[in-house]
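Final report, Chapter 2: Outcomes

The project's central promise was a pipeline that accepts a single protein chain and returns its three-dimensional structure in a standardized token representation, suitable for archiving and comparison. That pipeline is now operational. To close this chapter, we reproduce one record exactly as it appears in the project archive, with the input sequence first and the structure output second.
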Amino acid sequence: MLPSNRRIDLRAQELEYRKIDPVYLRNTSFTDMVTLVNRQLVDRYKEKIERKHYAMLLKRVESLVNEFSLYLPGVQQSRLVEMIVDSITGYGILHPFIADRAVTNIEIESPSDIYVMRNQKWKRELVSFESVKSLEEYIYRLFNRLGGRFTTDSPLGKVEDEEWNLRIRAAGFDLRPDSASLSIRKLRKDVLSEREIRYAMSPHVEEFLRFAMQAGFTVGVVGPFGSGKTTVLGTLLSWIPADKHVGLIQSANEIQRVHPMMRRGLTREIVGEQGKRIDEMRLLDFAKQENYQVLALGEFLDEAALTMLHILQIGIHALFTYHANDPKGAIHSFVFMMMRAGQGYDVHYLVDELARNMDLVIVMDRLRVKEIAQFTGKVDNQMNPVYETLYSFDVEEESRHELLGSWKREEKHKLCDKLRMKALMSGVRLPTGLSL
């Protein structure tokens, strides 16, 4: 055994090598202990920190606690090890909200600005992080555990937690120099409840969308992250006639089997940034060969845009989500993705085909159906598809998290001839009470 002074010298060298100050260790807080241990686990073992490996983590953390002589006054070492492992593998002060089934969204704008949606109502919670640094370290640990990255080189991060079925996004560093932000959304495994439907749309809007599903209208659901696109997509699929064969392709296991004749496919095998992606276009081509009568795509990307247009052209009833903030943005985004996909198509041809084959756009915003617009099949003098708003949400009051107001029917716009003919060909009558 080495002499005690030699062991001390080696320990000092180890701390110097790892840029850890022994004085800091003697005065560290529990939060800093968790940060230290988390970084050591990531640096040494180069693997995801997962709660399912709890027993192995206990041994590794115990070794680190001994190595760096970590302690808290009045807390036994075994209990300290458990506390550190629980903090690294869990959600800390956010755990009560994660575990609460009534909570669907968590938004953190700064260490003391934590908002939670519970039963369709937003509330600012009386909990907070110690500082901006502690919030950043919390996000760093969270992303490390779930296989993502949140660093100065990756200031905008996205991961998913399979155990709790969460989609998590964060922004920080140069993107948000005052404070990092964190958004946590619980991925739905079922369709909207009656209460949630009433929050998202009026009875008349619901009746119209049920009619649209019966008539086979192509629908694009657009909006920013967390606006409710995928949840509404799943609800629309549940309103498809029960005898139709439905295919669903999605990047996360979010929409379950909400239709009796549904088959589902995933575009990746593992959750996290390192997850192996399956070629989306191949899945779409496979879906065409399966003779689905309805095809839904949860969030399509550049390379899938042209394939999706082809699916529309051959007459498959299609539903899909992507990012845009209004009908005009939905057009430009779709065309831009098709252009990025290459193939040398003329933009005028793409716009004209989109006008012919796109039927409705549903704009989502803060879990509300904010607008429903129809595409008439025509193109204006500026080579833009002509669209008309059928329903809109009249905003009376709004905050970052919520819209308050009421829905209205834009009476000046009737259902266009293109959609009337499509409903007629499907054998579906226009709802009498909707002034279409």
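Archive annotation: The mean pLDDT is 84.
This record, like all others produced under the grant, will remain available to the consortium after the project formally closes.
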